[in-house]
Amino acid sequence: MFKFILNRLLQAIPVLFIIVAMTFFMVRAAPGGPFSQERKVSQQILEKMNEHYGLNDPVYVQFFNYLKHALQGDLGYSYKHEGRTVNEMIAESFPVSLKLGALSLLFAVGVGIPAGVLGAVKKNTFWDYSAMSVALMGICLPTFVVGPLISLIFGLWLGWFNVSGWFESGDVVLPSITLGLAYAAYIARLTRGGMLDVLNQDYIRTARAKGLSPSAIVWKHALKGGLLPVVSFMGPALAGLISGSFVVETIFQIPGLGRHFVNAALSRDYTMVLGTVLFYAVMIIIANLVVDILQVVLNPRLKYE
Amino acid sequence: MCSFYLSGTFGTTFAETYSFIKHIKHMFKKILPWLLCAVFVLGLSACKKRQTRADEAAAQGVLLIANGSEPSRLDPHLATGVPENRIISSLLEGLIAYHPTNDSLPEPGMAESWEPNEDSSEWTFHIRDARWSNGDPVTAQDFVYSWRRMLTAALGAEYAPNLFVIKNAQEYFEQKITDFEQVGVHAIDEKTLRVTLVGPAPYFLNMLKHYSFFPVNPCSVESMGGITDRMGEWTRPGNFVCNGPFVLEQWETNKVIRVVKNPDYWDADKVQLNAIEFIPIENQSTEESSFLAGQLHLTTNIPLSKIPYYLSNRGDIAHFEPYLGVYFYRLNVTKPPLDNPKVRMALNYVINRKLITENVTRASEQPTYAYTPPGIMGYEPPVVLSTDADKARQLLAEAGYPGGEGFPPLEILINTDEGHRQLAEVMQQIWSKELGIHVTILNQEWKVFLESQNKMDYDISRSGWIGDYMDPGTFLDMWTTGNGNNQTGWSNSDYDRIILEARMARNQQARYEKLFEAEQILLKELPIVPVYWYTTKHLMDPRLRGYYPKLLDNHPYKYMYFDLDTQQP
Amino acid sequence: MVNPCNLNVPEERLPSLPIDLNQVEGGSSLWADAWYRLRKNRFAVISLVVFLGITLFSYVGPFFCPYGFEEMDLATRAQGLSLAHWFGTDGLGRDLLARVMYGGRISIGVGFIATAISLSIGVVYGAISGYAGGKIDSVMMRLVDILYAMPYAIFIILLMVIFGRNIVLLFVALGAVQWLTIARIVRGQVLSLKKQEFVEAAVSLGLSDSRIILRHVIPNVLGVVIVYATLTVPSIMLLEAFLSFLGLGVQPPMASWGVLIKDGAENMTVYPWTLLIPSFFFSLTLFCLNFLGDGLRDALDPRSSKD
């Protein structure tokens, strides 16, 4: 396993390089620059501004300069938030998104897996259909509907929580439910599907024939295999969750990383785009690595490869 | 909802349903007393008004104000946006301050008094006995330093052209001269500043209110990065040396910026607020519900769909006020058929602007009859535009497209936004129905949109212009040939000449007459389709006082206070 | 497509085939058999009928509707449900029924085509990657990692700059991200299937790799794929709304369900029907697809028994 992890980490180096290179050139090719705005800036001033950020150099020079600094862990200054370094911005906002993401994940798994198992075990019964209908509602109602809706109900009408902001400990509740709901729905559906596949497998039939109790079969034997598709789904989902959600963070006014992802791209904040993409890529690589390890744990017949 | 629906269809027989209902009845009897208790408690808690964050803050004299998007920077010489302006104006004060009620009037700020020479081309300012928050006195040299900083090309200040009204400023900025002594700004002594302008500028005092003329503390700038540094280490909390009514205490990205009362401010006795929290909220619905939930005292906007409700029912909290800005469409005059003035006139005259402001934008905007918004003291824009669909059709026929026949399709370019989209949809309907021409809509992401507009890669493009200071010049200068903000390809030598003459006019009246003449040409040639003059839309806590309607939407915080006895809605 | 039921080849004994008495007796194919079982699933049939109804409503309905999707009447702005406007009107006085029907055309069309594209790419890619294993798997999966991390908004904007706006681009943009997760899920399934006896048996029988993947591996992952596909359709329909924001996709005054829901969400306290009605059709479609998907899954499951 150690060799496997080491191998994957070595593979990460070219992957990250390709991601940085592609992003670097893509973002510079996109129309509009970091300083373009409605009130036009004179060419002379624009040149001076570009000079501050080395944007007058040939692109390949800019690229190698960026690489040189990035290798030393310096992701440069943001263009939009002038005077703030990208490192500083990520360090500030990541803990917020991490907390939100972790709680959402807890909610999603806590609701999704039992619902999915229930659906599979009680297949085609009232329980199955109600669990799946609720899960479906989670998918039908996008975050931009759920978010305003629950903030309206629990924030404005009932007054149990703040409508927006990230000041009190209770401020995490509504956004993490909003964010978790969609994932819970996916997890429930995938768990049910996976469980159904497994419950028909020979080893479960064998276990049943051996007279093991139904609950032991479900929770000890079937769940392990049934979670496989969920685990594959969770890789990127996990990375997405902890690196923040633009919609939820915007609706609930949360100072997280998710807003930087989209806003940086929209304001052509080159360094910030690169910084967040790089950060997200690292998250993806780690999450997918963890998922691949988990797959082996859940299915001992597999080997690390 | 759906699970109920489904359970009903699931092979439940009548008998089963009946027993189920009986069961429910039984259950209900059991829990009824508890249910009643719960309702009672809930009712009680609803009666007792919850102490909200806004209540607490108002009692402490803390103003909670929504501030749109996160400010990019707080350096007054580099700032360009409205959110930045709201914060900077609490921290720094220029020679002339904003008057609490009337934007055309000068209010003494750092300058206690001033006198112009006879043709308003040279101004002498007497600086009051004021101190920076680090204890330094505010001096005339501070202003010389600050303006030199603005004009230092290497800094790359976007608003540097504002200062080109000063003699030799442009030459210095363009590095044609290197000695700042030759630029028309001099400290006669520590408290006297003399400013020589390129020509007569009766509007100079109004310009001075803009943050590009604000002073910065030379020591603090020099000790952290120096005159050309953009990174603004000196604007961080703890470093920011202020001369305004508040000092910067806290700055958390995307969360809050908090300023607290500055005890060293020259007029500190008048300042009643103890602190202001600027909360960046981009989403308008979030802003509105935060206000209603008692987390804010003042919002920057009202969501489009809620405007009619607030306008007709909530006069106690909703405020709609005229704003010095115009919403218009640019027409690309380099492309046929828009190169024909008759076509452009037809597009203009067919629009019933009143219909649009009453049914689409609905926030009491004023339909345009000219381009420059009304309200600038002494300047009345010409009344030119009107609605006349028959005349429009006739003009179109004269241009060679009777009934829209043979008219090539036009595309309205907008940036993604619900308001812009709705208006474009209405314009599309009007033009195609009334003139019989084919119009489509294209929405683009903001920066792509700017690029298209700038490259003139459009037919019709949605635009807006907000005045920086109270003067028609900030609206009319942009239409001169080759001006970076023209972006329509329109060029008229008479117009250019008259604008130039206006710049040389010896007094305000002569100047305004020239500008009026220029605007008439603009409205005859119509490279634009003015639609409406903006209003500002705010929700405001009724306890907040000292906040007055302002054409520039600039509300000095030093006059604001809370009247806690005000009846809550 | 694939006819795995040829009684003369040894695969017949492999468990990837439906072990079902009907099939052996009647000699019917997997697909015919699946269709037979699907028809017996009452819920799936209802779903299919309702779904076809919605499709018909969207594609044929506009011919019977007196209003166009762009036709506005500012006098009847934001009206609730009435006889003249069955679904009410929106903020500009446009008939919501017409808008929902036209929106359905776009959303159903886009949702299905893009899902089909991303499914075909994802399943094949994932199956090859998982089945091949080793270096090939590593390279293929790292490529997926790279694509995951691409800044999506910039990617879309660039696509538009390079290729201009056209409908093919919309599908590319939608499919580009959706197939990644499918590929990862399929790969995970295939990795575990590969170790199962029937695949090992097929390998020992000397069948070609492509044959094993197509006939034995993919049919066994279909269950999960179908479930994921029913989840992909709604996310694609909603993603389309985001693409509209970036300027790709349908242009105003036309609006898809995703865009209608997004607008409705902003007006939910003032004109609740502008949210509820498009959401209802969106949800109904998803419910149908979902139950249909479950039915299909069961019908195609080679091991499902009649217990």
Structural features, described:
The complex is a heterotrimer of chains A (305), B (569) and C (307). Chain A has 13 helices and no strands. With 305 residues, chain A is mostly helical. Chain B is of the alpha+beta class. Chain B is built from 18 helices and 18 strands. In chain B, helix 11 (341-349) packs antiparallel against helix 13. Chain B is globular. Chain B starts with a helix and ends in a 7-residue tail after the last strand. Chain C is 70% helix and 0% strand. Chain C has helices at 21-26, 30-40, 42-60, 96-132, 134-149, 152-163, 167-194, 197-204, 209-246, 257-266, 272-300. In chain C, helix 4 runs antiparallel to helix 5 and helix 8 crosses helix 9. At the B-C interface, helix 12, helix 14 and strand 14 of B face helix 6 and helix 9 of C.
Question: What is the CATH topology assignment of the domain at 93-257 in chain A?
Answer: MetI-like fold
Strand content of chain A: under 5%
| Largest two-chain interface | A-C, 62 and 57 residues
Q: What is the CATH class name of chain C? A: Mainly Alpha
Write a compact overview of the structure shown.
The complex is a heterotrimer of chains A (305), B (569) and C (307). Chain A is built from 13 helices and no strands.
Give the SSE layout.
The complex is a heterotrimer of chains A (305), B (569) and C (307).
Chain A: H1 2-29, H2 43-52, H3 59-71, H4 86-121, H5 126-140, H6 143-157, H7 173-199, H8 202-209, H9 214-226, H10 228-242, H11 246-251, H12 257-266, H13 270-298
Helix pairs in contact in A: 1-13, 4-5, 4-7, 4-10, 5-7, 6-7, 7-9, 7-10, 10-13, 12-13
Chain B: H1 2-9, H2 14-47, H3 53-60, E1 62-66, H4 82-91, E2 96-98, E3 106-108, E4 111-116, E5 122-127, H5 140-151, H6 169-173, E6 185-189, E7 192-196, H7 204-207, H8 218-223, E8 246-252, E9 256-261, E10 275-279, H9 284-292, H10 307-313, E11 318-331, H11 341-349, H12 353-361, E12 366-367, H13 389-398, E13 410-415, H14 418-435, E14 439-444, H15 446-454, E15 460-466, H16 473-476, H17 493-504, H18 508-525, E16 528-539, E17 544-545, E18 561-562
Parallel strand pairs in B: 1-10, 13-14, 13-15
Antiparallel strand pairs in B: 2-3, 4-5, 5-7, 6-7, 8-9, 9-10, 11-15, 11-16, 12-16, 17-18
Chain C: H1 21-26, H2 30-40, H3 42-60, H4 96-132, H5 134-149, H6 152-163, H7 167-194, H8 197-204, H9 209-246, H10 257-266, H11 272-300
Helix pairs in contact in C: 2-11, 3-4, 3-11, 4-5, 4-7, 4-9, 5-7, 7-9, 8-9, 9-10, 9-11, 10-11
